[in-house]
Specification:
disordered N terminus; alpha/beta; 22 helices; 6-stranded mixed β-sheet; 37% helix; Rossmann fold
């Protein structure tokens, strides 16, 4: 295993035998164990691996942000430009953070102070680490905001985080990280929650900043499309250990370690498989669906009208998966929530099993709710942490009149179906991994014997290997129960593999729809072309040389 620096010369970061101990109650002794690699000046090194592999702990150790009492540095060396970081005092560490090394987090809305203007939050770094005057700090903030391509920086400097889009908030985080020209930038899953076009912009921006400033970048991700797009070298981690280091092309095309090969083989292809068109009965018929939000007016100021969905028409047949793709704010989730009647549509029809549920009042709607079930993006938030998973699964059927004994028997069968042990019904959500919790969420939805299953970004937060397993499970239960599936996603690779047909939404309107293979090979609308062009790793053949090395 080669932990030497890449072609960029003297490393700005060197890790040598780095180990971090877990508490005695942990499932293993170390969160990371003997980790060694480096990041060169002007080099982008991606660290990949499944959840629990130690990627983020490595980043926290470098930044000196290990949670006290939970994770303890137990061995090894961290050198930043040759300076040993592990022996730094808290004051010395604070001086290094921001000035010589900075970090971009996954979710900027939780990292930014919601009640402080974004310009002040960027300027805080300058206030702590420099002696610049208030006017000089403001000018420096305006310059760095412009360098990350934020629009109308003179106005945006005084905006609050909630007034910015997700991509703009991430740019603010990058501006704050780069304002003092650090030699090392650590990016921890900075594009996971972003749609494909915004993700492409952020990746381009990070690569641009790295090239312009000569910054070394440690980029943590589980998305191999991102790796293909920006990495120069790749570090693969599993169970806290480094299993393989290589150039981007070596890891993507010719991985040596069995674990890396498994990860690469799990990456969904952008080439849709051949699917036979479904001719079964229509389970869901959306006709002319619109949803308009009106806020403000009279005492609250100027009236604001947002057309979240406009004249949307989509059909889903029994045993068919229809995907809705588009950027954040395109109206995908609005349509899904209207179909499930979690929100009331403004206009149009929603026919489920031939019954229009769009205008039904709650008393009349209740019998129909069991026919539509949703699997959300984050199963931990949708499962009650104080109830056993068994109680969560049987709650719906019992509420609709099934006996507890019958519902429990069915829950045990469903746990087996989704690949979990029936005895695990007595455990709580926190005792399962993210992929297992998503399987439990699917079991809970199936317990209602629905006609329609809505998957709202159900695999976007999962590791690539777990994602592949959950997608296979969704495809299996669709076929087994002849389910109609409405699949909401911004991941075109996932859509290509699981959807029979796809509707593309932009600004609340379906701009294009058709069979998946046809849409991917012959898209007509400019917006669809833009989505495909922005997909990270497009044109890359993952694992092309695996057969030759095994």
């Amino acid at each position: 295993m080669d932990g030497a620096p890449g072609p960029s010369g003297t490393p700005v970061l060197e890790l040598d035998g780095l180990s971090v101990a877990l508490p005695k109650t942990g499932d293993r002794t170390h969160a990371i164990d003997g980790v060694s690699f480096s990041v060169g000046r002007g080099e982008i090194v991606c660290v990949v691996g499944e959840s629990g592999s130690g990627k983020s702990v490595t980043a926290q150790a470098v930044m000196g942000l290990l949670p006290k009492g939970q994770l303890t540095l137990s061995g090894g060396s961290i050198r930043l430009e040759g300076k040993e970081v592990t022996t730094c005092t808290p004051a010395e560490l604070r001086a290094l953070r921001g000035a010589r090394m900075s970090m971009i987090f996954q979710e900027p809305m939780t990292a930014l102070n919601p009640v402080e203007r974004v310009g002040a939050q960027i300027g805080e770094v300058l206030e702590i680490h420099t002696s610049l005057s208030a006017e000089e700090r403001r000018n420096k903030v305006l310059d760095v905001m412009a360098s990350v391509h934020l629009p109308d920086v003179a106005s945006m400097i005084d905006a609050f985080p909630h007034q910015l889009s997700g991509g703009q908030r991430q740019r603010v985080m990058i501006a704050a990280a780069l304002v003092l020209d650090p030699v090392l930038l650590i990016a921890d899953e900075p594009t996971t929650a972003l749609d494909v076009t915004t993700q492409a912009q952020i990746l381009k921006l990070i690569a641009e900043m790295q090239a312009r400033r000569g910054t070394g970048v440690l980029f943590i991700t589980h998305d191999f499309g991102v790796v293909a797009e920006i990495a120069q070298r790749v570090v693969v981690m599993q169970h806290g250990k480094v299993v393989e280091i290589g150039t981007r092309d070596e890891i993507i095309s010719r991985p040596k370690a069995a674990y890396t090969q498994m990860l690469i083989k799990s990456v969904p292809s952008l080439e849709p498989p051949s699917r036979t068109p479904k001719t079964s009965a229509v389970a869901l018929a959306i006709e002319g669906l619109s949803k308009t939000y009106v806020s403000g007016g009279f005492l609250a100021g100027k009236k604001r009208v947002v057309k979240a969905a406009q004249n949307v028409s989509i059909e889903v047949r029994r045993g068919e998966t229809v995907g809705i793709v588009g950027e954040s704010g395109s109206g995908k989730t609005t349509v899904a929530r209207c179909v499930a009647r979690l929100i009331d549509p403004t206009d149009g029809e929603i026919k489920i099993g031939g019954v229009d549920v769009a205008r039904l009042r709650e008393s009349a709607l209740r019998p129909h709710r069991k026919h539509v079930q949703i699997v959300f993006q984050d199963p931990y938030r949708s499962l009650n942490p104080r109830r056993t998973v068994g109680a969560s699964i049987i709650e719906g059927p019992v509420n609709f009149g099934e006996s507890t004994a019958d519902a429990t028997r069915r829950a045990r069968d469903l746990m087996t179906l989704v690949g979990l042990q029936p005895d695990a019904l007595e455990r709580f959500p926190h005792q399962f991994s993210g992929g297992q919790r998503q399987r439990i969420a699917i079991a809970r939805a199936l317990a209602m014997e629905p006609r329609l299953l809505i998957a709202d970004e159900a695999v976007s937060a999962l590791d690539v290997s777990v994602q592949a397993q959950v997608l296979a499970l969704l495809d299996d239960v669709r076929e087994r129960f002849d389910l109609a599936v409405l699949f909401i996603t911004h991941d075109l690779r996932v859509a290509a593999q699981i959807c029979d047909r796809i509707a593309v939404m932009q600004n609340g309107v379906v701009v294009e729809h058709g069979p998946t293979a046809e849409l991917f090979s012959n898209a007509q609308h400019a917006y669809t072309h833009a989505l495909f062009a922005a997909a990270p790793g497009r044109g890359v053949k993952f694992g092309a040389g695996i057969e030759a090395t095994t």
